[in-house]
Amino acid sequence: MKPLRLIIVEDSEDDALLLILELKKGGYEPDHLRVETAASLEAALNNGTWDLILSDHALPAFSAPEALNLLNKSGKEIPFIIVSSVIGEDVAVSAMNAGAHDYIMKSSPARLVPVIERALHDSEVRAERKKALLDLRESEARFRRIAENALDIIYRVRISPSLKIEYLSPSVEAFIGFPADYFYDNPNAAFERVYEQDRHILEASLKGEKLFSKPILTRWVHRDGSVNWLEQRNVPIYDRVGRLVFVEGIARDITERILYEQELKKNHARIEALSNRILGAMEEERSRLARELHDELGQALTAVKLDLQLFNEGLSASQAQQYSLKQSIDLVDHTINLVRRQSVSLRPPVLDDMGLLPAVKEMVRGFMNRTGIQTKITADGFSRRLSKSVETALYRCVQESLTNVVRHARARNVSVRFNKENGLLALSVADDGIGFEPEKMEVHSEHIGLTGMKERVKLLDGCFTINSAPQKGTTVSIKIPWQDRVEGEAGL
Ligand SMILES: Nc1ncnc2c1ncn2[C@@H]1O[C@H](COP(=O)(O)OP(=O)(O)OP(=O)(O)O)[C@@H](O)[C@H]1O
Ligand SMILES: [Mg+2]
Fold first, then answer.
1. How far is the centre of ligand 1, averaged over its atoms, from the C-alpha of 419 (Å)?
2. How many CB atoms lie within 10 A of CB 117?
């Protein structure tokens, strides 16, 4: 049984009961109130919720048109059906026009249930449509609230059949100096404000060319003459036959970001030039010191040693004096070796004379002698001389890597590999030591070894990576574009 709350506008108790019986037969469980005056209908409408009103056409003190009028005034949407013993065609039509759903004759009560069912169904559909409309209005209002307050510029442009701006958020004014209305009135004004060189980008995007897949960047001229950058994300809307009808999108003023990026680029270039100069000056200073140590100090010490030896031979001194002279000659000898070693380590002549590989071999030999760490060099298909700057940079990288092995790695074996792959020169220095976590290393003025290597490699357009983990050893890898030596080249 379907519950049904209804008002019956009827002066005859018996007629009302007949209707109730008919409803019960039709599967309803009616809960009804019978009224026969305007006042009682008004009270019923005000005090309850109702599914249906059945109304006799003419009562002694009331009528269906008056009841309908009251219902309309109440603003409630309740299906209203006239049930009458006599009703003329013209009266029925005017009642329907005034909002009655239907009418039936008391003489054919069998129509009652189907008519009610249709009326209830219609009323349900109407209520749903009304709710959908309200939801739509609410969602439009919500969209507008968001769009009107957004800092970004939100827009919808009709492309076909002719250009028309359907929506443009007010934030456009802050960006361009003109209010949205200015563009509503003259959509082509938008094109006039785009920086001339960038106009084709906007045109292509609005024509639906492939630029839709990524944001477009254009410059726009503000009313005050300044030029600002806009990043736009456009979404195409096509009709059923695939024709572009609308373009919707969001645009953002990114002028500050672009200026910041340009500044950042300039700073990077400045820093790069500076570190290039510093590394160059450092290398020059090392060469000068090496030469001075070797030529000046080394030769002076050799002269002292020769003099002492001559002095020793010509002298008939006491045994004690001869012993101390011999000690002095040994000390000078030791110092000469020290000076030579220092001079070589500052700038090994073999690097300039023979090239990278022989110089690294010599370095590794010295490294093994001093530390006892087993070190292997492999150099597949690599024997050529490289440009001086590359040879110096790679030599210094191997030197720093080996120094790190001694200082930090506690390794037993090291492998230094050179090889040429796909036009790149690859160098790696791998140890089997305690390793570390490179991602946790912060830039610190006390640890400049790795940073210096990175910097040198970057200056050669190369790529520097370090692979390490606790107890997993460390591998430093460098890849740089292959550069053969060019004669007469000025390098580091
Ligand atoms: N082969 C390695 N094995 C283990 N730890 C390493 C290795 N190489 C570098 N490290 C770690 O990385 C840190 C940074 O190395 P980096 O060469 O930059 O600085 P440093 O050797 O400490 O000082 P310097 O500036 O004199 O080179 C080291 O302090 C060490 O903790
Ligand atoms: Mg170091």
1. 25
2. 14
Provide the Cα torsion 37, 16, 69, 59; round to 10°: -50
Distance from Cα 181 to the centre of ligand 1, integer Å: 64
Mutation choice for ligand 1 from 400, 408, 440, 457, CB with most ligand atoms inside 8 A: 408
Q: What is the pTM of this model?
A: 0.58
Which pLDDT band holds residue 445 (cuts at 50, 70, 90)?
low
Residue (of 487, 477, 492) closest to 438 by Cα position? 477
For the segment(s) 150-253, the CATH number from 3.40.190.10, 3.30.450.20, 1.10.3720.10, 3.10.20.90 is: 3.30.450.20
Is 443:450 a contact under the CB 8 Å cutoff?
no
Assigned architecture for domain 2-132: 3-Layer(aba) Sandwich (3.40)
- Give the model confidence (pLDDT) of 226-266 as tens digits: 999 999 999 889 999 988 999 999 999 999 999 999 999 99
Convert the pLDDT of each residue in 28-78 to its tens digit: 999 999 999 999 999 999 998 999 999 998 899 999 999 999 999 998 989
What crossing angle do the helices spanning 319-346 and 298-314 adopt, rounded to 10°?
A: 160
Rounded Cα distance, 244 and 326, in Å: 100
What CA–CA distance (Å, rounded) separates 178 from 171?
Answer: 10
Alpha-carbon distances, residue 180 vs 177, 216, 233 (angstroms) = 10, 21, 19
Q: How many residues does the chain have?
A: 492
Q: Which residues contact 378 (CB under 8 A, 6 or more apart)?
A: 415, 416, 417, 418, 419
For residue 446, report the distance from its CA to the centre of ligand 2, in Å: 9
Has residue 491 got a pLDDT over 60?
Answer: no
Task: Report how far residue 292's alpha carbon sits from residue 280's, in angstroms, rounded to the nearest whole number.
Answer: 18
Taking the C-alpha atoms of residue 92 and residue 101, their distance in angstroms, rounded to an integer, is 10
Q: What share of the chain is helix, strand, coil (3-state, %, to 5)?
A: 55, 25, 25
